[in-house]
């Protein structure tokens, strides 16, 4: 009928100068010109048509089309088999990662005395998998099939695998924290040190910042061992640590106080120092505490009262009349123990109260927007700007305007408003663009660490993670586990799919 159709089964070979029939080459068992190479160009039309209409060719072409069906193709079957295997190992890794997150989040050890899964001393990691397998037929079948394989075979339940997963989970957790720090810009640092079970001095670094939600948070970012206690050594270590995470030390803003106003803190410190001073000056308090101590320990005499007092030999030209009377045990304890403890506490409280008062002088006016007049606000705001010239610009004008705004919209009439409450007012009413400098002042204030409580808690984690049974743990693994334990709430929110994808990418790069 004059239509032109393409013969896709016919292929021309430039090297042979001939055409071949592909279906007959693949499935034919009888030799013909189209299998060996056809080049009779004078009779090409008739011979090609004859071959095309032959039963032999049609059978071979039908087989090719049938085998070429997507469901029956060999490559498709292999891809399907590969996808099933990928899904299988993904499901295994999900369970393994869940166990890693559970043990690390609680600071529990992974390894046991033995690494055979059937052994009763196989450790928490393998024991947890065995427990899950009791209620999970999929995992039970996997452990039965792979857990007893020789070293070097793939099972994903070996110590090598979970050590790699611990590192990956640690990296993903830091990838959640560090971008938040960079986004917040301003942050505060808390640094302290303590010896671990192996007598290595461990420096803890806590970073405090304000999240996008307005919530001030403190994050532990690692231990550093044996760096010394000199100021230069500490400074270099902290700067290098921050530089490693791409954080600029210039944005560090010192110390602050979370969810408690500075005025209250200052009054608490002053009243506590006065109370301790009263304890020191009044003998009645000492006698009262002495009676309580006697009831607790069931001892009625001081140790020095039980010993015979030595008589000093009188030297030439001396007499005993001028000798000072030897103190009894009670008086000795009051002067050399009781009073020293109180004096040290009072001195330390005064020092800390002075630091709080210094910060109160800078930020305290923000709590009294409703009571200060315009001149007082301008003077206090100008003083704050002097301390943060690179951060605050038009703070005075914004404070005056914000003062008027609070007088209009604030429902309760009270003299004192906490800075956290003022920050919530800005966030609730979406006024950060209007009062951008005030928002920065709030952020700087909340980014300063209040106390060293987070650092002390990190030391508690250090003692749990690096116990006497794990005293030989290296510094890198200590940091991995410490971060996962301290940030257990963030750990449980991590996406396991992303960790599995990264794990697969690492394995692919090694291959």
From TrEMBL:
Domain DUF4371: 88-259
InterPro entries: DUF4371, HATC_C_dom, RNaseH-like_sf
Domain of life: Eukaryota
Domain HAT C-terminal dimerisation: 435-489
GO molecular-function terms, A-Z: protein dimerization activity
Protein name, as recorded: Zinc finger MYM-type protein 1
UniProt lineage: Eukaryota, Metazoa, Ecdysozoa, Arthropoda, Hexapoda
